Amino acid sequence: MTEAEKKMRLGLYAKIAIARKQLPDMDEEAYRARLRTEFGKESAADLSIVQLSRLVHDFAVHDGVVYTAPAKSRNTAVKPQSRPDWIEITDSMPFAREKREILAIWRKLGYSMSSLDTRVKRAFGSHLFVWMQDEEQIKTLLSDLQRRERSFDKKRRAESSGA
């Protein structure tokens, strides 16, 4: 396991601990039952990074858990939970730079962030964009979006010079 994967796992474990503290009915027995039901595992240590991410995401979406921004965050006003059309890419995620570039182009083209998950699921079989870890798939998506961005920019220039 790489150092980046270890950091990511530790961050996800911390978020799970935060979620368990926020959920009064989530005692040890209920937590273990949830792991068995959803993943067929007895412990979070047995889960993959993708499964841990899904568990953290489910706590937020289905159980209303709120994860606060870290103290080092420069913009505390923007939180993923306050903007439904927001995808957070942390530095510890695989291919974070490429994923951020994809998000920037996606936003520039005017697409909704929720449609990105749909595109990724249809094209690559990954349920969520943030779970993508295959370098070739990320490169394919990025090159397609860069091509669309060039076309978009060219069309804008033509409109502005013709107007």
Would you mind describing this structure in some detail?
The chain is mainly alpha-helical and 163 residues long. Helices cover 61% and strands 0% of the residues. It contains six helices and no strands. The protein has helices at 3-22, 28-39, 49-63, 96-108, 113-124, 135-162. Helix 1 (3-22) packs parallel to helix 3 and helix 4 packs parallel to helix 6 (135-162). The longest helix is centred in the last third of the chain and has 28 residues, at 135-162. The radius of gyration is 19 Å and the shape is elongated. The protein starts with a helix and ends with a helix. The model has no long low-confidence stretch (mean pLDDT 84).
The largest sheet, given as strand count, sense and whether it forms a barrel, is: none
Oligomer: single chain
User: Which stretches are low in confidence, meaning pLDDT under 50 for 5 or more residues running?
Assistant: none
> Looking at the structure, what is the overall shape?
elongated
**What is the distance, rounded to the nearest whole angstrom, between the alpha carbons of the first and last residues?**
56 Å
Radius of gyration: 19 Å
Fraction in beta strands: under 5%
Query: Roughly what is the average pLDDT, rounded to an integer?
Result: 84
The DSSP helix count reads: 6
Structural class, judged by helices and strands? mainly alpha
How many E strands? Answer: 0
Please bin the fraction of helical residues.
Answer: 55-70%
Q: What string gives the helices and strands in order? A: HHHHHH
